Amino acid sequence: MGARVSDRVGSIAESATLAVDAKAKALKAAGRPVIGFGAGEPDFPTPAHVVEAAVAACRDPRNHRYTPAAGLPELREAVAAKTRRDSGLEVPAARVLITNGGKQAVYQAFATLLDPGDDVLLPAPYWTTYPEAIALAGGAPVEVPTDESSGYLVSVEQLEAARTPRTKVLLFCSPSNPTGAVYPPDQVEVIGRWAAANGIWVVTDEIYEHLTYGEARHVSMPVVVPELTDRCVVVNGVAKTYAMTGWRVGWMLGPPDVVKAAANLQSHLTSNVANVSQRAALAAVSGDLEAVHHMRAAFDRRRLTIVRMLREVPGMECPEPQGAFYAYPSVRGLLGRELRGRTPATSAELAELILDEAEVAVVPGEAFGTPGYLRLSYALGDDDLAEGITRLQKLAAEAEEPGDHGAAR
Ligand SMILES: Cc1ncc(COP(=O)(O)O)c(C=O)c1O
Fold it and tell me: Contact, 368 vs 127, CB < 8 A?
């Protein structure tokens, strides 16, 4: 008798970020004062004019029906216009495919581009969904590790060293989840030119495009390297920019043959995204960026606070993130040290201990391909943020030096 669950689907790991969030929410529901740094979602409500557009859409029977699988024509037009406005990429509406969140765009991009035997260069730390989406599509992720010494930025030399005749795609994400790193424009250009020169496709995830701080700016790879346009898929969505994670609207932009093939796939998979959500997304992308600027100012303030406070946690080292809303400290200095009777050997064990002992939820670096780190989202209220990191500081201060067993008791 064959296995009950197929090898392909049985090999998918649960999303570690969603799992941490679910555990933290369950503990909270049970009355525990858990502070969650796990979820990658803004704590703000969706802007009121977007919600109003959705309410009106609910009342319009046209939105109670199926619509074209690739998305409402008005929304595809508006995404094309927004892309021109925000990143300078000229793309006709026919090359926009509206998806159920950026996540479906990532999956469909790989499903459309990869055959068995194709490799995808995946700079690590990476967002936890990429390797699963690549593997589901029959490809193989080839991790290219980075660390805090380069600000978590991959170099073209590293990419070239990892390239083989099987390399078909490079996954590029800036600003990055989980590190908050933002590639400077010249490095985006060098990497894009290298990809174009070697006939490598780029899937570039721009979902955090508006969340950059200080001097950092997002630039779109096909804009700085136009010769890449025919081998480039851009992934984006409304979730992070407009505090719309629950509405499930994203999109992919790409060459006509790829977008057409991905739309065929989507027509058998999920058909159109819920029309009410598409109408909400239409209000978001065709409106101004005022709400985004307001949220970005709050994230920036929290970013500076969390970095300052994390740097005071004994055993942690935290580079300053330039974008998104994550800090990614190294916690190697805390591993192998006794803490409340336990000795965490890995960041996964440390994250569990932190949840149990400090009631603070964080995601271990294992979820992003780099053990020895923690990811903390700072998209939470200022008071919770300060309280949560204070708890971490107190807990870490109790860690005993290796070989120091019992001395502090
Ligand atoms: C880098 C990155 N890309 C894409 C997504 C997908 O977002 P959504 O499916 O909510 O639009 C996320 C969400 O966490 C992300 O962090």
Answer: yes
| Contact by Cβ (8 Å): 239, 102 | yes
Question: Residue-wise over 249-283: b if at least 16 C-beta within 10 A, else e?
Answer: bbbbbbeeebbebbbebbeeeeebbbbbbbbbbbb
How far apart are alpha carbons 275 and 75 in whole angstroms?
10
Place of tokens 């992070």: 240
Q: What is the tens place of the pLDDT at every residue in 274-316? A: 999 999 999 999 999 999 999 999 999 999 999 999 999 989 9
Tell me if 245 CB under 6 Å of ligand 1: yes
Q: What is the DSSP string of 271-286?
A: -S--HHHHHHHHHHHH
Candidate from 210, 240, 278 with most ligand 1 atoms within 8 A of CB, to mutate: 240
CA-nearest residue, atom 16 of ligand 1: 177
C-alpha distances in Å from residue 260, one per residue of 69, 176, 264: 11, 28, 6
Centroid of chain to Cα 267: 25
The pLDDT, as a whole number, for residue 1 is 67
Element holding 250 (H helix, E strand): strand 250-253
- Which among 20, 174, 177 is the best mutation to test ligand 1's pocket, defined by most ligand atoms within 8 Å of the CB? 177
Nearest atom in ligand 1 to 249's CA: 11
As a whole number, mean pLDDT of residues 19-23 equals: 78
pLDDT tens by residue, 140-199: 999 999 999 999 999 999 999 999 999 999 999 999 999 999 999 999 999 999 999 999
pTM (2 decimals)?
A: 0.94
Does residue 192 line the site of ligand 1, with CB under 6 A? Answer: no
Helix-helix angle 275-286:73-87, to 10 degrees = 30
Pairing of strands 232-237, 201-205: parallel
Compute the radius of gyration of the chain from its Cα atoms.
22
Q: Does 42 sit in the ligand 1 pocket, CB within 6 Å?
A: no
Strands 201-205 and 167-173, by their bridges, are parallel
Residue type, 253: L
